[in-house]
Amino acid sequence: GQNIDQPTEMTATEGAIVQINCTYQTSGFNGLFWYQQHAGEAPTFLSYNVLDGLEEKGRFSSFLSRSKGYSYLLLKELQMKDSASYLCAVMDSNYQLIWGAGTKLIIKP
Amino acid sequence: ETGVTQTPRHLVMGMTNKKSLKCEQHLGHNAMYWYKQSAKKPLELMFVYNFKEQTENNSVPSRFSPECPNSSHLFLHLHTLQPEDSALYLCASSQDEGVGNSPLHFGNGTRLTVT
């Protein structure tokens, strides 16, 4: 079967750095997405990786290793507004999105 | 403003009621989706429409009936629901279906409670 694993919950301190991991086993691979979802709001697109390596967008970076079936989302200089759930999703060989259950990130002052 | 608008935001209905969820996208996208989001579970794809044609029905019970009158509007008609159908229902759109770098744009969802 197809599977996406990510931690259920993480806690970090304001101003620090946090890394949210995502591992996947899917039938083929056509890219990996990260979304951010604040409580009671819509998920919003953060990043897309299809090639190995690091993609940086301001305070957020996303890394992909296709050989290891592994990605992470790196958040730097954490702010209270970064408290949210972070969803990892992989597009398989049929271009279907396989979703993880999400990681709830709690930022403490 | 997310570009995808869903109404209502909250809905409480009995098991014998009939109600409809509405979604409208202002992004000029060609594909629209209904997802179910339950606590601590992955998003579940329900239906996909591409250029108004249904391309995916992910084994959804017939008590959920989608309608897509045009590329900008999507409805989910609900009847004789069960308490386990209580969840957040998310509408999304994307420029195209089945294309790698075509991220989804989500609405804020309808929080449905079935009593």
What is the approximate shape of chain B? globular
Q: Which stretches of chain A are low in confidence, meaning pLDDT under 50 for 5 or more residues running?
A: none
Derived structural class of chain B: mainly beta
**Number of E-state strands of chain B:** 11
Query: What is the 3D shape of chain A?
Result: globular
Strand percentage of chain A: over 45%
Q: Portion of residues in helices of chain B?
A: under 10%
Identify low-pLDDT runs of chain B.
none
Radius of gyration of chain B: 13 Å
Order of helices and strands of chain B: EEEEEEEEEEE
Helix count, DSSP H or I runs of 4 or more residues of chain B: 0
Order of helices and strands of chain A: EEEEEEEEEEE
Query: Which value, in Å, is the CA radius of gyration of chain A?
Result: 13 Å
Polypeptide structure, described:
The complex is a heterodimer of chains A (109) and B (115). Helix content of chain A is 0%, strand content 57%. Chain A is built from no helices and eleven strands. Chain A has strands at residues 3-5, 9-13, 18-25, 32-37, 44-49, 53-57, 60-65, 70-75, 84-91, 97-99, 103-108. In chain A, strands 2, 4, 5, 9, 10 and 11 form a six-stranded mixed β-sheet that branches. In chain A, strands 1-3-8-7-6 form a five-stranded antiparallel β-sheet, with no helix packed on it. In chain A, β4 and β5 form a beta hairpin. Chain A is globular. In chain B, strands 2, 4, 5, 6, 9, 10 and 11 form a seven-stranded mixed β-sheet that branches. Chain B has a four-stranded antiparallel β-sheet with strand order 1-3-8-7, with no helix packed on it. Chain B is mainly β. Helices cover 0% and strands 56% of the residues of chain B. The interface between A and B is medium-sized, with 25 and 20 residues.
